[in-house]
Amino acid sequence: MEEINPLEREHSLCVILPAGIEKNITVHGSKPVMDLLVTLCANYHLNPSDYTVEFLSPNKNNISFKPNSPIGLLEAEKILLKPKGTEEKTKKPYMPEATVRLLINYNKSHKTVLRVNPRLPLETVLPAVCDKCEFNVETTVLLRDLQSKEALDLTKTLNDHGLREVFAKDTAAQDSTDCQSKSAGGGNCHNMVKERKQRKRGFFSFFRRRKKKNETNGSVSAPTSPRLGKQVRVRGNSESVSSTNTLPADTPKKRPAPQPPVAV
């Protein structure tokens, strides 16, 4: 008697459903494993993406297979229909991370808000704070308030410190910050800038003042020149008058000519 090709005949299998119920089915040997899975899930109103199958031999051993392996080549006796990720589903359901609103003060008058986990250490939160404030992580410290000189312990959490507001300070930018504060209060930086501007103005205003002074002197001397001329002429007239008046006094008096002799 010739043996029938297992791919060309029907196979009787026992299917064990997720609830433990056993069902007997008949499957053609040429049907791929994935097609069988889809057919079983459709018959029992299950989602194929949530289930997988295992094949057991008559000796109760697991049979390895590929998704496109024909059923006739597996020589299986039972099929186990199992849900995927059974171990993952037994774990606790995912809980979203609880965050709080952290108010960050920086550069004295700047503020920003960041949502963080209050149960994480501050050393974990610091990179996000520096990214928000555009600070360097290596030189940034967190303070309780603006007047505080002691940095917060980064190994503790916000809940440990009891804070929802912090002050971020970049120690590397301290010099520039001091210069800005002096400038705001009329300090040395402001005076230096002011002096530079005055020097520039003084250099150019020197020529303007000199030009203006020359114009002023010219305008003053123009109307007074006739007056000075008059004064000179008057002075010259007075000198001529005085000279004519004093001329007889200055010149020696001439003796009168002797009278001609009288003829006797």
TrEMBL record:
Residues 90-176 form the Cordon-bleu ubiquitin-like domain. Gene3D superfamilies: Phosphatidylinositol 3-kinase Catalytic Subunit, Chain A, domain 1. GO terms for molecular function: actin monomer binding. Residues 237-248 have a biased composition (Polar residues). InterPro entries: COBL-like, Cordon-bleu_ubiquitin_domain. Residues 214-264 are annotated as: Disordered. This is Cordon-bleu ubiquitin-like domain-containing protein. It comes from Poecilia formosa (Amazon molly).
